[in-house]
Amino acid sequence: MEIVEIRTKKKDYLTLLLLADEQEDMIDRYLDRGTMFVLIDNGVKAECVVTDEGNGVLEIKNIATEPAYHGMGYGKELIEFVAGKYAGQYSVLQVGTGDSPLTIPFYERCGFVRSHIVSNFFIEHYDHPIYECGKQLIDMVYLQRQIELPVCRDENSRLFQ
């Protein structure tokens, strides 16, 4: 397994990017200014895009794992990789997501805590309703964690296999 930075042709990973953010023009808002990483383990399994939001905040704008590989630790590996790579440069790792029973618990298991909410984000910024687990996403929920804390490494982590 390896994690590599993608500096050119980021749109080659559009199918994977669209799993986490289903509207391409929203991806276009951050893809060029973001740093993209892909996790390769006998092929690309996951990707992550992070941006510098100022004031010591590094934000995960997009993170997705190929559906056939959900629950195998790839997303956690990417989060820990990013946290380790940027430790000392940033103090906070932040992510914004819909209020979903799939995504919020994942981030909480990785040590993130709820920070703030942007009301009506998905209604105001997307050209169609976004649903996850049968629930329409309306507000953007932001979660944060201190970037130095390696909380996602456990017996299920790919590094321990």
Tell me what the structure shows.
With 161 residues, the chain is α+β, with helices and mostly antiparallel strands. The chain has a single domain (2-160), classed as Aminopeptidase (3-Layer(aba) Sandwich). It has helices spanning 14-20, 24-31, 74-86, 103-109, 121-125, and strands spanning 2-6, 35-40, 44-52, 57-65, 92-98, 113-118, 131-132, 135-136, 140-146. The strands form two sheets. A seven-stranded mixed beta sheet has the order 1-2-3-4-5-9-6, with helices on both faces. The chain has a two-stranded antiparallel sheet with strand order 7-8. Helix 3 (74-86) links the parallel strand 4 (57-65) and strand 5 (92-98). The chain is globular and about 35 Å long. The termini are close together.
